[in-house]
Design brief:
Elements: H1 2-27, H2 32-44, E1 65-67, E2 74-78, E3 85-87, E4 101-103, E5 108-111, E6 125-127, E7 132-135, E8 149-151, E9 156-159, E10 173-175, E11 180-183, E12 195-197, E13 202-206, E14 224-226, H3 256-260, H4 265-312, E15 330-331, H5 349-357, E16 366-367, H6 378-383, E17 385-391, E18 395-401, E19 407-413, H7 420-431, E20 441-446, E21 451-456, H8 463-468, H9 480-500, E22 513-514, E23 523-524, H10 556-572, H11 589-598, H12 608-612, H13 618-631, H14 642-653, H15 661-664, H16 671-678
Helix pairs in contact: 9-10, 9-14, 10-13, 13-14
GO molecular function, one term: protein kinase activity
InterPro entries: At_inactive_RLKs, Kinase-like_dom_sf, Leu-rich_rpt, Leu-rich_rpt_typical-subtyp, LRR_dom_sf, LRR_N_plant-typ, Prot_kinase_dom, Ser-Thr/Tyr_kinase_cat_dom
Protein name: Protein kinase domain-containing protein
Length: about 700
């Protein structure tokens, strides 16, 4: 009987071993040091969203935490859009030795990267875009030898791009766009790199040949960059700046230098005669000036103080113009005299009155912020061809195409009440604003009769034109994806103005949301101009908050109200400026939506064009409607702050915002996780 029992016993032992190993893996946990590192990070970093990390549950089941197949070590930490606030504490995430992916994008992470985080030996992907990181990019990042994806886009990073990035030989993706980086681009030569983007910075100089293979969009927004794939550095846009008097190197035989060494006798005689004549003329001028001054002194002695004052007047020269003096910032250095500059040319309509009202003045454009990279001046604007883009509450906008090919928008302000000094100071403040969802002023002109603002030209038009233009005439309606991206862009731009610059927009509306070619980079324009005008009694086409009385004293909460009206406009397809929602014009858009929702006809609120398109995002539409209704609450304190609106829209569907293709292409996790990552929120999990 012993013979048959032996195989049975062996099989039983094998089954028992399998059960033991499975039980081991089921209870396997990362080392206590890794658990404590994660808890220390969460404890030291304020966060708006509950994550459910606690000691009573396995660390590998925590929201945003992924372990290796044996659950023995943490390999990924993904916490996008969870409301993290503050710097990454040292001695926390840097204690995860096997960490391969770290994603903290779309939070409010401040400061710089801790040293221990830049020493993780196995880190492959670092995603920190859409945060508030500041300072220079540390050269120590080159210590992450195995790094394949480095995404630091849309932060407040400054300084130069370190050449040490060349040491990251495994790098495939490098995105530094949307920062304040300056200096030239180092010659980064990494053969395997497929994505490179440094757009919307303050970089200058020529683009290295090793990076010229990347598209123009990778370098756009750096006004002082040149070279392939941008215009060549020798073009009028980027004029060379040789030293004054410098001669070209390598003179040829027979050049002017050799001719100087072989001057003829006639030439020498001519030079001597010319010098003598010039000396005699100079002597005659000195004598005449002395006689003239002597006569003026005699006349002053006879005429008394009054005559002396009138005689001294011509000696002062031309007085500086009362309204044309240069303000702070960079002014145009050529063609400063306006007289005759526009005669016989096609003058830009926005600047025509400036020519008439400033005749004889030294009128200048004052460049602010990145506008210093432009090379035109007021005379160039006068010669430009002009096209009216639209008339708004603050003035008329023109598209001006300069002779050199540059296209800008010139806004001619009306009824400005601010004095010159206040105007200058305010424009300097607005020129410092830089964000992909905000359109800052690049230059301005101030005179007694004319005030002009110059902006970058965005060819895709406004959200209002795209949403309402030519309805029913065969145009392509704005789909739900595009509306969500526009809503998120407007909210992000407004949050940046409020939090980074403490500025109130004061005029949030669909016509001031301009569309860029990048679908999720719509930009808010005409911001913070309300302080320049006298108080207005108009209601800004239905966007203005009910508590606003003095348009010069607007608040952040009033901006949020206007943003809420904009969200309702995207949802309903109805323009708030058309007061015909009830036929008699007595009900504005927020109150109309409230009345419909109160009667439980919520579906009747949404734009019929969305229904025709077969929009299948009813849950997202209802969720955005709830956000909009919170924004248009009658009591200002009941409205959320702009950063909270951004967070709520991102939670509805982060995929409608900037899609992080770098993350979605990693192939580390399953399809469900990929979809969750593209939305910008961590995987769903129970929270306490």
């Amino acid at each position: 009987m012993a013979g048959p029992r032996a195989p049975v016993a062996a099989a039983a032992a094998a089954v028992l071993a399998i059960f033991i190993s499975l039980a081991f893996f089921a209870v396997a946990e990362p080392p206590a040091s890794e658990r404590s590192a994660l808890l220390a990070f969460l404890t030291a970093t304020p966060h708006e969203r509950k994550l459910g990390w606690n000691t009573s549950t396995p660390a590998c089941s925590w929201v945003g935490v992924t372990c290796d197949p044996s659950n023995s070590s943490v390999v990924e930490v993904r916490l996008p859009g969870v409301g993290l606030i503050g710097a990454i504490p040292a001695g926390t995430l840097g204690r995860l030795p096997n960490l391969r992916v770290l994603s903290l994008r779309s939070n409010r992470v401040l400061g710089s990267l801790p040293d221990d985080l830049l020493q993780l030996p196995n880190l492959k992907s670092l995603f920190l875009q859409h945060n508030l990181l500041s300072g220079a990019i540390p050269a120590r990042v080159a210590g992450l030898a195995g790094l394949e994806r480095l995404v630091l886009a849309h932060n407040n990073l400054s300084g130069a791009i370190p050449f040490a990035l060349n040491n990251l030989t495994s790098l495939k993706v490098l995105r530094l766009d949307g920062n304040r980086l300056s200096g030239s681009i180092p010659s980064i030569s990494i053969p395997g790199m497929t994505v490179f983007n440094v757009s919307d910075n303050n970089l200058n100089g020529s683009i290295p040949k090793s990076l010229s293979r990347f598209p123009r969009d990778s370098f756009a927004g750096n006004l002082q960059l040149c070279g392939d794939p941008l215009p060549p550095c020798g073009s009028p846009f980027f004029p060379p700046s040789p030293a004054p008097g410098a001669s070209p190197p390598g003179g040829e035989p027979g050049s002017s230098g050799s001719k100087k060494r072989k001057l003829s006798g006639a030439a020498i005689a001519g030079i001597v005669v010319g010098a003598v004549v010039a000396g005699l003329l100079l002597l005659i001028c000195i004598v005449l000036c002395a006689v003239h001054r002597h006569r003026q002194g005699a006349a002053a002695g006879e005429g008394g103080p009054k005559a002396a004052t009138s005689a001294a007047a011509p000696a002062r020269g031309l007085a500086p113009p009362a309204s044309g003096e240069g303000g702070g910032g960079m002014t145009s250095s050529s063609k400063e005299e306006l007289g005759g500059g526009a005669s016989g040319s096609t003058a830009a309509a926005a600047a025509a009155a400036a020519a008439g009202g400033a005749a004889g003045e030294q009128s200048r454009l004052v460049f602010v912020g990145k506008g210093a990279g432009y090379t035109f001046d007021l005379e160039d604007l006068l010669r430009a061809s002009a096209e009216v883009l639209g008339k708004g509450s603050v003035g008329t906008s023109y598209k001006a195409v300069l002779e050199e090919g540059t296209t800008v928008v010139v806004k001619r302000l009306k009824d400005v009440a601010a004095e010159r000094r206040q105007f200058d100071t305010h424009m300097e403040t607005l020129g410092r604003v830089e964000h992909r969802n905000v359109l800052p002023v690049r230059a301005y002109y101030f005179s007694k009769d004319e005030k002009l603002l110059v902006y970058d030209y965005l060819p895709n038009g406004s959200l209002s034109a795209m949403l309402h233009g030519s309805r029913g005439s065969g145009r392509t309606p704005l789909d739900w994806e595009a509306r969500m991206r526009s809503a998120l862009s407007a909210a992000r731009g407004l949050a940046h103005l409020h939090t980074a610059h403490n500025l109130v927009h004061g005029n949030v509306k669909a016509s001031n949301v301009l569309l860029r070619p990048d679908p999720d980079a719509a930009a808010l324009s005409d911001f913070s101009l309300h302080q320049l005008f006298a108080p207005s009694s108009t209601r800004a086409g239905g966007y203005r908050a009910p508590e606003v009385v003095d348009t010069r004293r607007l608040s952040f909460k009033a901006d949020v109200y206007s943003l809420g009206v904009l969200l309702l406009e995207l949802l309903t397809g109805k323009s708030p400026s058309h007061a015909s929602l009830e036929g008699d014009g007595t009900l504005d858009l927020p109150r109309w939506v409230q009345s419909v929702v109160r009667e439980e006809w919520t579906a009747e609120v949404f734009d019929v064009e969305l229904v025709r398109l077969g929009a299948s995002a009813e849950e997202e539409m209802v969720a955005l409607l709830q956000v909009a209704m919170a924004c248009v609450a009658t009591v200002p304190d009941a409205r959320p702050d702009a950063p909270d609106v951004v967070r709520m829209i991102e939670e509805i569907g982060g995929g409608h915002g900037r899609t992080t293709t770098e993350e979605s292409s990693e192939g580390v996790r399953g399809a469900t996780s990929e979809e969750e990552r593209s939305r910008g929120t961590p995987p769903a999990a129970p929270t306490p």
